[in-house]
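ugh ok fine here u go
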Amino acid sequence: MNGRTAHFLFVALHAKLESLLETTLSGMGYEMVALEMTRPGGLVRVYIDRASGIDVDDCAVVSNHLSRLFAVEGIDYDRLEVSSPGLDRPLRKPADFRRFVGERAQVKTRIPIGGRKNFTGKLCAATDSRISIDVDGTVIDLDLSIIDKARLVPNL
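structure:
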């Protein structure tokens, strides 16, 4: 198998697993924040969340459930980790941005906007395609399609 084929199969496996996890976790009352895989048959790391927060018991319940699900679905993995996304939770979907309007976020764009790619400020608004972020008193509107990464900034 050449490198291109292996990469394609890995991407396909990731997409299949992501879809399976989204469905399964939402049925359990959780949200899948992110999925990381090191390689086929390697580490599978799943970050979960819900409105009331996540604790160790939630991670254990989800881990046990996913272990059984992966066995039934024939998902090959070496190690499974289930975790909270942490205080600096990534923001990926439009629903993430809407949920955290009013919170501080750090946003990195793929292309420069006004000569810069990094913006840190308070999320003012969010729709399915755009966000508004107040950076030092200036509200900047960003299209979600140009956002490379976004994370909450913890209130410490």
